Structures are given as structure tokens and as C-alpha cells.
């Protein structure tokens, strides 16, 4: 099947006159990580004030009476059989309301905030996600005003956000029940129940569905309620004259429609029955990255998170180290290993000086021109938060140094207006803020806090060398002390000289306007210092693009490290092919990895905006045919379909051209609006790579797909208990050292933020793990490729150090599932070009492969 798949795309014609990039992203806070883009549901204009002219004693939540159990009759379809482990499915029936509403009554809506009345074809919707297999039997609705005929529907979704039939949402081909039409009369305090008729409607767990009230006229009016604290709105409004989805709220609170799905769950799974167990060993840390590395040299994997941390001098984003025991248990490092890396929004780990321990490269996020005044940082702007302050600006009497000449107003003001202990004449360069004056600590906030004429000058990239015990020392004058808005980074050895090199990607100079800050590439000298090689390597673009992901991988099997760069803002991606000596040529258009082949509207095409909003990517040989395939995450709003790229499963067709064929839909990967990171790993040790996808956006969840070979991929998110809300960072990793891969997720939005999912299933099959160590190659063996032959199948894995969006870095250990097979042969292709055979390895153990030894050593 893999080789027979051919791209098939149905083009849905959609005319869109304008695309506002400002709606596709959010400006990063100065000195903080770039905020991920906003979903359609949030971008949309709020509806405005609700009509609250209904009695105050209206019930605040519906009363749901228990339903009769599932009737005998048509059983669930075959796709539900895997959920029902024992007994008859009828015996499991339990009356349930999915997404039960508990908020206080708010009123009713009959028009947009601007006064545009609802008309025939208006859709008021509520998304719901069953957490168990579900038999839909009834729809409950509260119509609070007016009378007339209503039409109620339940449909699948597009991108897990819009009705599946969009841009023709009135079509019912994707509905899961026949439309229900009924005459209703609104009531201040009475819900109404509508029976589902026809064939039974069985809904899959963790899949997304939408309840729809389709207007046949302006009314009756559907009631709304306030979303309780700690919950989020699931409501969207669609007008027949717009492609936008309108969220419900007035700027102070959000609302839900009073629509509920009622029925029975069946074949329920209890927590111990799921294939992964959830735990939260990291407390309430709100982390923007996840990385796994051995910091203290004890042979156990440690976890590095990153979070805003309150210190005596201010609140800073810093890396937080948790030392591991190897059994899935962790303790915060005391003192914190990288506590001095103030302002670092993420860190990259590798043995930079080849001395056998793990060093670090930290990246503060520094906005280049946050206030959009055209005066960048570093440069002649002494306040990057105020567009009226820069060198040469007009000085006015306002307590600030408007023209950045070191003097406030007249220069002789003796009063201390901000009560920070200094008057302007004594060294306060901003007498309107108490955190700005001579001697104050510099903060990553876009201001000249210490009044030395520079903004955020203390917050640049730094190299940190490790003493082997998780104590780090900064390398002075390392060569990489840039102040960039960096979003992604990865180490490699692109010139194969045995020393780590680094590429990092950057974001916009000023959000939301183009251009971006140029990405950077530095070659290492092996002593903690680096040289700028961007120009010499041929990587400089004529127009810098907004990068959101990087990953190194030898895609064409020539032994050299190639580089994939994911770009945002509908810009094409690059696949930089390495000539083996560290010089690069972009071949993405030639091999099909720059964008898909659906043309955008003409006005966008003329601007070169032909692709998608790409984030993290990961390479892996999912079909075990000897070349690296790829999954590229794309944020893709439903209103921009079909021309804005959705996430891409790219099948490498191998020699001679090593072109990629997009097979996402054919292989069962569902389109989700908010994908931003993905990772390959063999969770069940059956010998082929499975796929986990992490995403952003309210109401969106992580997904886990099992690789079923020629049958494609199966969504096993429910069985794995892997549906985590807004978890956008993920790595595979054998946290408890039991021979199967676990999952580490991080979310910056929803507590408890960091989840460890411990695998309960993988040890049922055979496995083997390897750590590679270079002697001529880099000590980390970065870029080395492992080949493990078992029977007729050879599986390959690469050593990588970082990558994805915001650096999601798994450990260096290479995990190979074997199914029921043996370890027949082990080879390593080092970056020196030599392929070395190793003897002595067997399944069920961890092994060390040292370059030049030829014999595997047990760990």
C-alpha cells in the first residue's frame, strides 16, 4: 500500500477576499516566548450583549432524568469492537450527558453585537467530545424566547472546530443523525428534549462532534449561559454571509449555548485499563519546553522544563532541572542547575566541548522592535515598549527620556515622581516607573531598567559548560551572544568535523508585520565557542521568513545532515540539502516538502504566500523501507481551507529523487486546526513507528496514532488515555527504564501543565535500546544512524539533539521495538562516513556502542 498510494485531493472552491495575518498570531510579550497563534474560535468577533429580559429565578442548569438503558437492536459498528473488552455491549449502558452545562443563565442572542439579526441559515453550535463510547439518544435544548420551527443537527467537525461540511455547512452529508425538526415555544425556565430517530448514532470516544441549531428564521432564540470559572466556551456562531466563526462573550466573560448531547456511554474503560497511566511528578510548573538529558552524569535521564520564576530581582523565565532516578521519579535539582540563565525561554543540550558531559545553550526571547517605531534592539531605542521613544525623537515634559540622550525632560529635575529613590538629575531615566533608574537590575521587558542606554542587554544567548555534576559555567565570548526572538533550535555536525554546530530559527522583527529576523547557523570549535557560518553555508535568505520549527535529518541517505526549516505566515518551508561539507541548497520545491499543491487565492500567491503556518516536524522511517519519512505540523484554520496547508504526513519515495508524497488523509491522520509538535516512537514495540501529535488551542487535545502497517494509522487516543487539553510539547522517552516508551507532555495553558504518561503495554513485546558514543565523531554521536536488523526487516533510528517547535528534546537513547524478533545485526553509520558493525547485542537490554569498538557493551 505504501508504494501504491497516489495523492488525491478534492478541491472545495472558496472565495476569500482578505486574510488578516494579525488574526493568525499573537504578539509575544517582550522577553517572553512567542505566543502561539489564536484559533478561529477566539479570533472571531464576540457577539456582544445578550438579551437578559427573562425572569431572574430561571434555573441555572438543566435537570437531566435518567434514560432507559440501550435497547437491543442494531449494535455498534465494527469500529467500536475494540472498545468492548468483555461482556455484551448492552450490559455497559450508563445514562450520560456529554458536556453537561452548569453555568448560570445569561439570556438569549438574536443578533450580532453590531445589530445584524440572525437569519435563515444561521448556525448556533456547541462542540462536544465523548470521553467514552457514546450512544446519542436525545438532544436537550433551552429555547428561551419566541416560537416557531427549529432544526437540530449533530455533525462531525472540520479541523475539530467547524462543521465538517464547511464551507457549505447547511449540507448534511457529514451529519451523524437525520435533522430533527420541531415546533417550539420559548420558555424562561423549561428545557425541551428531542428524540434521535432512525439508525442508532454511536459516537467514537475522543472524537469531536458538534450540536447545531440551524435557524429556519430569526427565532426562536436559543438560551445562553455564562461559562463557569475554570471551564471554556464550546460555542460558535456561524452567519450564512460570513466564513468567520464568532465566539460568544462580551469581553468580560464567555458564554455557552444551552445545547446538550444526552444518551448512554457503553464499554467504558476505567483508568487502570488504559494503556498509559497518567501522573504529574512536576507539580504546577507551567513549562514552555520539555527536554530530557543526563545533567549530572549519573547515567539517569533528567528532565528540564522552563517556566516563569519569581526571584528577588523580578520574575524571569529560566530552565528548571529535575534529576531522575531512572524509575520515573524526579526531584528538583538543588540548587537549580541553570538558575543563572535568567530570561531563557528555552535551552538546547549537548556535549559542546566533547568532554563527556551535557552542556547547554540558552535562548532568551528578545523582541527586536516591540513597539514598531523602526528602531530595533539592540540599537538606538532606549524604550522598546513606547513607539514615541527613540534616538532623535522629540523630547517632551513627561518624566521620560524621549530622545534617548540620557536626560529626562530638561535634565535638571530634582523630584522623584515614581518614588524609586532617584530623581532624574541623579540618574533616573524614566521617572514614571519605579523599576527603571540607575543601579536597578536589567529585566527582559524591553526597557532600559538600569539607565545605561541599552535595552535588555543582559539577555542574550549563552553557552554553558558542565562540570559533570550539573553545575554550569557560562562561556565568555562564545560567539553566539545574539539577542534574537528565537523559536526553535537544534544541534548537529553539519560539516562532519567532530564538533557540534547549531542552527536556530527566529520570529518577526515586529509583530504582526514582516520581515522576520534572519535565522542563524554557527559551526562549533569544540571548546564552547562558535563561528557564524550562515553566509558561507548558503543559508541566508533574501527575505528572512518567520521560522517556527527546525530539525536535522539525512533525508536522502547520502550520509550528510540535511536541515528542514518550518515557516509560519503561509511561507514555504525549506529543506536544505547538505553537500557533505556544510554547504546547503534548498531542495524543498523539488521533493515536495515546501508546501502542498493546492493553490491559494491570487492575491496571496502574488505575495509568495503559498504554503501554511508550519511548526515542528519530525522524521522517521514509519514504513521500514530504509528512508526517512516526515510529519510536518501545520496550524490551519478551517476558514482558510483548502488552500492553507494542513499537517503533512510525507512518505519518502526513496531513490533516485527521494521525493515525498503527501498521504495524511489516506493513512488516517485526521486534520486538526492546532497541530504544532509531533514525534515518532514505537510505543507497543511491534517494530513500526507510531505517531503522537501535540497541539494548541482551547478545546483541542493531543492525539496518538498506532501504525498498523499497510492499513495505515489508527487513532488510539482513547485507549492510551492520551487526550490532554492544549498540551503543545511532547517527547517519547523510556522514563522508568522498563523497555517501553513513555510520553512526556507540557502545556503552557492548563494545569497541571506537565504530564508523564507511563506505558503499560509495550513490554508485551521485545525491544532493545542503544546509546551511541563518538570518538572521531562528536561525543554525542549526533547525526549517526543506527540500523537494527531483525529477520527480513531493518529498522533505523537517528541520534538527534533538539528540534521541533520551541525545542522538544528527547534523550539520546535510541529505542527499537522488535515485535517477536531477535537482534540479528547492529550497524552504525557514523558522520565520518564509516559504517561499523557491532556484535554482542541482544533484545531486552540497553547497550553502549562506542565508535571504533565493534562490540556492544551492556549498560
Could you explain the architecture of this structure?
The chain starts with 39 loop residues before the first helix and ends with a strand. The strands form 13 sheets. Strands 3, 6, 7, 8, 11 and 13 form a 6-stranded antiparallel sheet that branches. Strands 1, 4, 9, 10 and 15 form a 5-stranded antiparallel sheet that branches. Helix content is 2%, strand content 33%. It contains 4 helices and 55 strands. The chain folds into 4 domains: 39-268, no CATH class; 272-366 and 460-769, Methylamine Dehydrogenase, Chain H; 372-458, no CATH class; 770-858. It is an all-beta fold.
What brief labels describe this structure?
4 domains, mainly beta, single chain, 859 residues, 6-stranded antiparallel β-sheet
Summarize, please.
The protein has 859 residues and is an all-beta fold.
**Strand share of the residues?**
25-35%
For the largest beta-sheet, the strand count, sense and barrel status come to: 6 strands, antiparallel
Q: Could you report the average pLDDT, rounded to the nearest whole number?
A: 90
Number of DSSP strand runs:
55
Question: Topology of this protein?
Answer:
Elements: H1 40-43, E1 94-98, E2 105-108, E3 123-128, E4 134-141, E5 143-145, E6 147-158, E7 162-163, E8 180-185, E9 192-195, E10 201-203, E11 209-214, E12 221-226, E13 235-238, E14 255-257, E15 259-265, E16 276-279, E17 290-293, E18 302-311, E19 314-324, E20 330-332, E21 344-350, E22 359-364, E23 462-466, E24 472-474, E25 486-492, E26 501-506, E27 508-510, E28 513-516, E29 520-524, E30 530-532, E31 547-553, E32 562-567, E33 574-578, E34 584-586, H2 588-591, H3 602-605, E35 613-620, E36 629-635, E37 648-652, E38 660-662, E39 675-681, E40 690-695, E41 703-707, E42 713-715, H4 717-720, E43 729-733, E44 742-746, E45 754-759, E46 766-773, E47 785-790, E48 793-798, E49 801-802, E50 808-809, E51 814-819, E52 825-829, E53 835-838, E54 846-850, E55 857-858
Parallel strand pairs: 17-50, 46-54
Antiparallel strand pairs: 1-15, 2-12, 3-11, 3-13, 4-9, 4-10, 4-15, 5-12, 6-7, 6-8, 6-11, 12-14, 16-45, 17-18, 18-19, 19-20, 21-22, 22-23, 23-24, 25-26, 25-49, 26-29, 27-28, 29-30, 31-32, 32-33, 33-34, 35-36, 36-37, 37-38, 39-40, 40-41, 41-42, 43-44, 44-45, 46-51, 47-48, 47-52, 52-53, 54-55
Amino acid at each position: 500500500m505504501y508504494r501504491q498510494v497516489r495523492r488525491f485531493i478534492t478541491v472545495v472552491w472558496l472565495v476569500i477576499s482578505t486574510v488578516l495575518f494579525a488574526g493568525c498570531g499573537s504578539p509575544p510579550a517582550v522577553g517572553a516566548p512567542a505566543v502561539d497563534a489564536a484559533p478561529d474560535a477566539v479570533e472571531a468577533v464576540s457577539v456582544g450583549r445578550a438579551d437578559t429580559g427573562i425572569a431572574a429565578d430561571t434555573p441555572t442548569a438543566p435537570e437531566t432524568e435518567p434514560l432507559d438503558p440501550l435497547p437491543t437492536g442494531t449494535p455498534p459498528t465494527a469500529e467500536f469492537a475494540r472498545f468492548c473488552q468483555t461482556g455484551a455491549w448492552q450490559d455497559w449502558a450508563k445514562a450520560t450527558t456529554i458536556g453537561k452545562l452548569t453555568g448560570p443563565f445569561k439570556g438569549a442572542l438574536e443578533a450580532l453585537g453590531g445589530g445584524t439579526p440572525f437569519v435563515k441559515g444561521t448556525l448556533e453550535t456547541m462542540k462536544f467530545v465523548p470521553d467514552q463510547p457514546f450512544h446519542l439518544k436525545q438532544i436537550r435544548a433551552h429555547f428561551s424566547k419566541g416560537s416557531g420551527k427549529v432544526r437540530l443537527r449533530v455533525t462531525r467537525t472540520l479541523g475539530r472546530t467547524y462543521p465538517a461540511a464547511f464551507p457549505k455547512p447547511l449540507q448534511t452529508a457529514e451529519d451523524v443523525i437525520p435533522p430533527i425538526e420541531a415546533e417550539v415555544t420559548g420558555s424562561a425556565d423549561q428545557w425541551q428534549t428531542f428524540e434521535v430517530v432512525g439508525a442508532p448514532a454511536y459516537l467514537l470516544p475522543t472524537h469531536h462532534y458538534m450540536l447545531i441549531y440551524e435557524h429556519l428564521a430569526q427565532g426562536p432564540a436559543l438560551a445562553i449561559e455564562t461559562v463557569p470559572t475554570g471551564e471554556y466556551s464550546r460555542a460558535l456562531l456561524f452567519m450564512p454571509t460570513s466564513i468567520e466563526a464568532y465566539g460568544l462573550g462580551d469581553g468580560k466573560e464567555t458564554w455557552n449555548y444551552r445545547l446538550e448531547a444526552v444518551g448512554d456511554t457503553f464499554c467504558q474503560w476505567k483508568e487502570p485499563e488504559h494503556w498509559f497511566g497518567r501522573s504529574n511528578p512536576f507539580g504546577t510548573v507551567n513549562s514552555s519546553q520539555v527536554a530530557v538529558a543526563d545533567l549530572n552524569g549519573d547515567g539517569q535521564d533528567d528532565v528540564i522544563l522552563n517556566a516563569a520564576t519569581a526571584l528577588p530581582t523580578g520574575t524571569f523565565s529560566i530552565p528548571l532541572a529535575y534529576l531522575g532516578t531512572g524509575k520515573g521519579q524526579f526531584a528538583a535539582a538543588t540548587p537549580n542547575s541553570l538558575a543563572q540563565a535568567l530570561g531563557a525561554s528555552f535551552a538546547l543540550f549537548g556535549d559542546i566541548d566533547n568532554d563527556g558531559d551535557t552542556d547547554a545553550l540558552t535562548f532568551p526571547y528578545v523582541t527586536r522592535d516591540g513597539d514598531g517605531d523602526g528602531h530595533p534592539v539592540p540599537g538606538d531605542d532606549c524604550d522598546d515598549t513606547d513607539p514615541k521613544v527613540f534616538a532623535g525623537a522629540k523630547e517632551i515634559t513627561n518624566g521620560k527620556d524621549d530622545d534617548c540622550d540620557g536626560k529626562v525632560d530638561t535634565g535638571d529635575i530634582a523630584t522623584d515622581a515614581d518614588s524609586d529613590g532617584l530623581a532624574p538629575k541623579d540618574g533616573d531615566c524614566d521617572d514614571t516607573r519605579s523599576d527603571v533608574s540607575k543601579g536597578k537590575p536589567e529585566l527582559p521587558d524591553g526597557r532600559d531598567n538600569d539607565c545605561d542606554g541599552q535595552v535588555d542587554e543582559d539577555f542574550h544567548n549563552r553557552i554553558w559548560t558542565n562540570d559533570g555534576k550539573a553545575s554550569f559555567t557560562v562561556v565568555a565570548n562564545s560567539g553566539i551572544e545574539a539577542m534574537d526572538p528565537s523559536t526553535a533550535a537544534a544541534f548537529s555536525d553539519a560539516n562532519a568535523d567532530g564538533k557540534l554546530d547549531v542552527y536556530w530559527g527566529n520570529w518577526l522583527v515586529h509583530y504582526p508585520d514582516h520581515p522576520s529576523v534572519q535565522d542563524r547557523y554557527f559551526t562549533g570549535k569544540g571548546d564552547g565557542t562558535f563561528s557564524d557560518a550562515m553566509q558561507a553555508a548558503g543559508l541566508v535568505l533574501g527575505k528572512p521568513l518567520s521560522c517556527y520549527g527546525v530539525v536535522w535529518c539525512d533525508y536522502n541517505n547520502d550520509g550528510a545532515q540535511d536541515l528542514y526549516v518550518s515557516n509560519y505566515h503561509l511561507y514555504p518551508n525549506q529543506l536544505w540539502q547538505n553537500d557533505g561539507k556544510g554547504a546547503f541548497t534548498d531542495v524543498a520545491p523539488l521533493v515536495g516538502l515546501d508546501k502542498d499543491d493546492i493553490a491559494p487565492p491570487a492575491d496571496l500567491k502574488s505575495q509568495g504566500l503559498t504554503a501554511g503556518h508550519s511548526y515542528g516536524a519530525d522524521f522517521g522511517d514509519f514504513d521500514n523501507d530504509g528512508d526517512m519519512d516526515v510529519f510536518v505540523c501545520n496550524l490551519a484554520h478551517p476558514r482558510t481551507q483548502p488552500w492553507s496547508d494542513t499537517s503533512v504526513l510525507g512518505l519518502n519515495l526513496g531513490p533516485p529523487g527521494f521525493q515525498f508524497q503527501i498521504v495524511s488523509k489516506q493513512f488516517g491522520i485526521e486534520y486538526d486546526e492546532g497541530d504544532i509538535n509531533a514525534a515518532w516512537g514505537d510505543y507497543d514495540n511491534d517494530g513500526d513507528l507510531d505517531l503522537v501529535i501535540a497541539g494548541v488551542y482551547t478545546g483541542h487535545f493531543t492525539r496518538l496514532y498506532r501504525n498498523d502497517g499497510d492499513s495505515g494509522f489508527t487513532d488510539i487516543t482513547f485507549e492510551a488515555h492520551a487526550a490532554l487539553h492544549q498540551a503543545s510539547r511532547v517527547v517519547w522517552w523510556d522514563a522508568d527504564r522498563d523497555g517501553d516508551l513513555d510520553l512526556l507532555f507540557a502545556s503552557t495553558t492548563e494545569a497541571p501543565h506537565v504530564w508523564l504518561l507511563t506505558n503499560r503495554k509495550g513490554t508485551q513485546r521485545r525491544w532493545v535500546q542503544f546509546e551511541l558514543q563518538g570518538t572521531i565523531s562528536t561525543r554525542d554521536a549526533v547525526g549517526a544512524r543506527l540500523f537494527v536488523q531483525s529477520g527480513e526487516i531493518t529498522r533505523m533510528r537517528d541520534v538527534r539533539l533538539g528540534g521541533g517547535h520551541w525545542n522538544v528534546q528527547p534523550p539520546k537513547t535510541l529505542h527499537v521495538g522488535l515485535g517477536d524478533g531477535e537482534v540479528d545485526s547492529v550497524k552504525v553509520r557514523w558522520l565520518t562516513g564509516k559504517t561499523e558493525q557491532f556484535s554482542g547485542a541482544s533484545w531486552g537490554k540497553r547497550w553502549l556502542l562506542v565508535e571504533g569498538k565493534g562490540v556492544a557493551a551492556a549498560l
